[in-house]
């Protein structure tokens, strides 16, 4: 890939690139819809991601080009910027805007991006672009940012420049990922630990349902509101900042305070899912992949029955995986209502899995899913 991108860069810009960078996408292995409830998530970096190839220019401009999008831009290097519209280059432009508040970028840059993360699939292509840009500028110009500052800056860009109120998980995972490791991240405190995630004879299958995620944003906001209601009612009797300060045993003592049955279901998922992350970390540390797989299935069932964010497409994928002998665990990942599911698939079964799942999914849903095979990869780096 490096040689191919070097050739493309030279054809486009008429000069050789001086540096290459890569930042992965991510999947959340377990711990869904609890990041905004102060809970634990367990993301890992994947081997799909975003490449950035660059070279300085003498014209004091930033040139944004991508092999994935037709839109391109040449923008004067200046102290600040505002979002120009929906185009992809607003994500890296936002990084320039944030860094230029406190740092000098002494020269213009010619930039070429390429990504193999399926856009809109829930694998965090936007976080990957933001982090690769921030990492590259920090490294190339020796700006002195500590590693923890990279995902925090990228999240700020997403929140304030792009206008998406996301948490820290996506940016953190793509910056800090390690091969054959998962990250257990406390979304409230940003404390984290790295856990072994050696999949051994298994690979990570990522199944994009190819369903447009039109419901995801509205339903996401609805779930956030329902969790706030649960927290408010629990605080009639106890003092909590977040739902995930309770474990299942303590929640059972106070759940009678939640008056609405739907709100009770939402809170039950959140608290049990948070417990599952701890159990999953133990299973991985023990090298017990079958137990980890069982917890993945339990997570999906809870997201289906209690949190109601799966939908026919994601449920079809997990149903197939549950009946396919070479998969030991599967679940939806991300916000739901489309996007992706993940599965732990035995090595050597990739072609058989893809064919049989495709036949099943087309018969059930009416159009094919897209299937990607990945290992657990490293975070942002110079190549």
TrEMBL record:
<dbReference type="InterPro" id="IPR019539">
    <property type="entry name" value="GalKase_N"/>
</dbReference>
<protein>
    <recommendedName>
        <fullName>Galactokinase</fullName>
        <ecNumber>2.7.1.6</ecNumber>
    </recommendedName>
</protein>
<dbReference type="GO" id="GO:0005829">
    <property type="term" value="C:cytosol"/>
</dbReference>
<dbReference type="GO" id="GO:0005524">
    <property type="term" value="F:ATP binding"/>
</dbReference>
<feature type="binding site">
    <location>
        <begin position="32"/>
        <end position="35"/>
    </location>
    <ligand>
        <name>substrate</name>
    </ligand>
</feature>
<keyword id="KW-0067">ATP-binding</keyword>
<dbReference type="GO" id="GO:0004335">
    <property type="term" value="F:galactokinase activity"/>
</dbReference>
<dbReference type="GO" id="GO:0000287">
    <property type="term" value="F:magnesium ion binding"/>
</dbReference>
<keyword id="KW-0963">Cytoplasm</keyword>
<comment type="similarity">
    <text>Belongs to the GHMP kinase family. GalK subfamily.</text>
</comment>
<dbReference type="Pfam" id="PF10509">
    <property type="entry name" value="GalKase_gal_bdg"/>
</dbReference>
<dbReference type="InterPro" id="IPR006206">
    <property type="entry name" value="Mevalonate/galactokinase"/>
</dbReference>
<keyword id="KW-0479">Metal-binding</keyword>
<dbReference type="InterPro" id="IPR019741">
    <property type="entry name" value="Galactokinase_CS"/>
</dbReference>
<comment type="function">
    <text>Catalyzes the transfer of the gamma-phosphate of ATP to D-galactose to form alpha-D-galactose-1-phosphate (Gal-1-P).</text>
</comment>
<feature type="domain" description="GHMP kinase N-terminal">
    <location>
        <begin position="90"/>
        <end position="177"/>
    </location>
</feature>
<comment type="pathway">
    <text>Carbohydrate metabolism; galactose metabolism.</text>
</comment>
<dbReference type="InterPro" id="IPR014721">
    <property type="entry name" value="Ribsml_uS5_D2-typ_fold_subgr"/>
</dbReference>
<feature type="site" description="Transition state stabilizer">
    <location>
        <position position="26"/>
    </location>
</feature>
<dbReference type="InterPro" id="IPR022963">
    <property type="entry name" value="Galactokinase_bac"/>
</dbReference>
<keyword id="KW-0299">Galactose metabolism</keyword>
<keyword id="KW-0418">Kinase</keyword>
<dbReference type="GO" id="GO:0006012">
    <property type="term" value="P:galactose metabolic process"/>
</dbReference>
<feature type="active site" description="Proton acceptor">
    <location>
        <position position="170"/>
    </location>
</feature>
<dbReference type="Pfam" id="PF00288">
    <property type="entry name" value="GHMP_kinases_N"/>
</dbReference>
<feature type="binding site">
    <location>
        <position position="126"/>
    </location>
    <ligand>
        <name>Mg(2+)</name>
    </ligand>
</feature>
<keyword id="KW-0460">Magnesium</keyword>
<feature type="binding site">
    <location>
        <begin position="120"/>
        <end position="126"/>
    </location>
    <ligand>
        <name>ATP</name>
    </ligand>
</feature>
<dbReference type="InterPro" id="IPR000705">
    <property type="entry name" value="Galactokinase"/>
</dbReference>
<dbReference type="Pfam" id="PF08544">
    <property type="entry name" value="GHMP_kinases_C"/>
</dbReference>
<keyword id="KW-0547">Nucleotide-binding</keyword>
<keyword id="KW-0808">Transferase</keyword>
<feature type="binding site">
    <location>
        <position position="220"/>
    </location>
    <ligand>
        <name>substrate</name>
    </ligand>
</feature>
<dbReference type="InterPro" id="IPR006203">
    <property type="entry name" value="GHMP_knse_ATP-bd_CS"/>
</dbReference>
<dbReference type="InterPro" id="IPR013750">
    <property type="entry name" value="GHMP_kinase_C_dom"/>
</dbReference>
<keyword id="KW-0119">Carbohydrate metabolism</keyword>
<dbReference type="InterPro" id="IPR006204">
    <property type="entry name" value="GHMP_kinase_N_dom"/>
</dbReference>
<dbReference type="InterPro" id="IPR036554">
    <property type="entry name" value="GHMP_kinase_C_sf"/>
</dbReference>
<dbReference type="InterPro" id="IPR020568">
    <property type="entry name" value="Ribosomal_Su5_D2-typ_SF"/>
</dbReference>
<feature type="domain" description="GHMP kinase C-terminal">
    <location>
        <begin position="280"/>
        <end position="362"/>
    </location>
</feature>
<feature type="binding site">
    <location>
        <position position="66"/>
    </location>
    <ligand>
        <name>ATP</name>
    </ligand>
</feature>
<feature type="binding site">
    <location>
        <position position="158"/>
    </location>
    <ligand>
        <name>Mg(2+)</name>
    </ligand>
</feature>
């Amino acid at each position: 890939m490096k040689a191919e991108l070097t050739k493309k860069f030279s054809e486009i810009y008429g000069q050789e690139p001086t540096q290459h960078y890569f930042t992965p996408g991510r999947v959340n292995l377990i711990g869904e819809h609890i990041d905004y409830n102060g809970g634990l998530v367990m993301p890992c970096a994947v081997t799909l991601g975003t490449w950035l190839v660059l070279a300085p220019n003498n014209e004091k401009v930033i040139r944004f080009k991508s092999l994935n999008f037709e839109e391109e831009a040449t923008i004067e290097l200046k102290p600040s910027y505002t979002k120009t519209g929906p185009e992809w280059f607003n994500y890296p432009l936002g990084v320039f805007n944030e860094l230029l508040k406190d740092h000098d970028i002494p020269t213009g840059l010619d930039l070429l991006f390429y990504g193999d993360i399926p856009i809109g699939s829930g694998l965090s292509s936007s976080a990957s672009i933001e982090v690769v840009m921030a990492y590259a500028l920090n490294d190339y110009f020796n700006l002195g940012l500590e590693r923890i500052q990279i995902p925090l800056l990228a999240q700020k860009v997403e929140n304030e420049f792009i206008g998406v109120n996301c948490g820290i998980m996506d940016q953190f995972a793509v910056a800090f990922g390690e091969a054959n490791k998962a990250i257990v991240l406390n979304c409230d405190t940003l404390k984290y630990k790295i856990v072994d995630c050696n999949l051994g004879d298994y690979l990570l299958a990522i199944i994009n349902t190819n369903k447009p995620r039109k419901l995801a944003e509205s339903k996401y906001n609805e779930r956030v509101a329902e969790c706030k209601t649960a927290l408010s009612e629990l605080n009639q009797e106890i003092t909590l900042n977040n739902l995930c300060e309770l474990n299942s045993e303590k929640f059972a003592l106070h759940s009678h305070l939640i008056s609405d049955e739907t709100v009770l279901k939402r809170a039950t998922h959140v608290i049990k899912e948070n417990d599952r992350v701890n159990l999953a970390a133990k299973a991985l540390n023990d090298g017990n992949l079958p137990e980890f797989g069982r917890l993945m299935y339990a997570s999906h069932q809870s997201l289906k029955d209690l949190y109601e964010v799966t939908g026919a497409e994601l449920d079809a994928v997990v149903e197939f995986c549950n009946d396919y002998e070479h998969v030991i665990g599967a679940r939806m990942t991300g916000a739901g209502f489309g996007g992706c599911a993940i599965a732990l698939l035995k090595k050597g079964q990739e072609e058989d899995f893809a064919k049989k799942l495709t036949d099943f999914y087309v018969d059930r849903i009416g159009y094919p899913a897209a299937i990607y095979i990945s290992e657990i990869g490293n975070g942002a780096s110079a190549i």
